[in-house]
Amino acid sequence: PIEKLVALLNTLDRWIDETPPVDQPSRFGNKAFRTWYAKLDQEAEKLVAAVIPKHLADAAPEVAVYLKESVGNSTRIDYGTGHEAAFAAFLCCLCKIGVLRVDDQMAIVFKVFNRYLEVMRKLQKTYRMEPAGSQGVWGLDDFQFLPFIWGSSQLIDHPNLEPRHFVDEKVVNENHKDFMFLECILFITEVRTG
């Protein structure tokens, strides 16, 4: 199931490449996202059905709703922590119906959820998505919340990395591929200025 979920996310990533941004005057919210989203809307049940066993096929329509809700809003062309929560609910549904197991928890976070983050960051950059509720979500990042919690768990009792290092550009650049939290910090530095 982990490999199938990563393959599902790889498909979403490929669709971004196949749906380039359109030339438009607006600074935010490239309308090509709506084309990309329409493809997901049409294919979501098939994508989910490829992940779950055939005897659970009746669950695909309901589980697919959470997948569609996890990528952003196609009307507003925005993305935020509520969409991220929908992906967590998507994963929770897969746990509840027995596709994912407790033994999968590390892979769920550090393979599947991490791949989800990569695809969402690509969506955000490619289609210049607004942060949903962008008056500030009272967190470090306008787009994400969970990877800061799960990512910080990787750093518990780390012999060298401490919170004071998270603003050190050199430390972040050298360690971001190994630590989800630092990957989040790097993304913030890429999309924010000042």
Automatic annotation (TrEMBL):
InterPro entries found in the cross-reference section: Phstyr_phstse_ac, PTPA_C_lid, PTPA_sf
One example of a Gene Ontology biological process annotation: mitotic spindle organization
EC assignment: 5.2.1.8
Record keywords, A-Z: Cytoplasm, Isomerase, Rotamase
Chief place of localization: cytoplasm
MF term (GO), any: peptidyl-prolyl cis-trans isomerase activity
PANTHER family from the UniProt entry: SERINE/THREONINE-PROTEIN PHOSPHATASE 2A REGULATORY SUBUNIT B (PTHR10012), SERINE_THREONINE-PROTEIN PHOSPHATASE 2A ACTIVATOR (PTHR10012:SF0)
Protein family membership: Belongs to the PTPA-type PPIase family.
Protein name: Serine/threonine-protein phosphatase 2A activator
Organism field: Zapornia atra (Henderson crake)
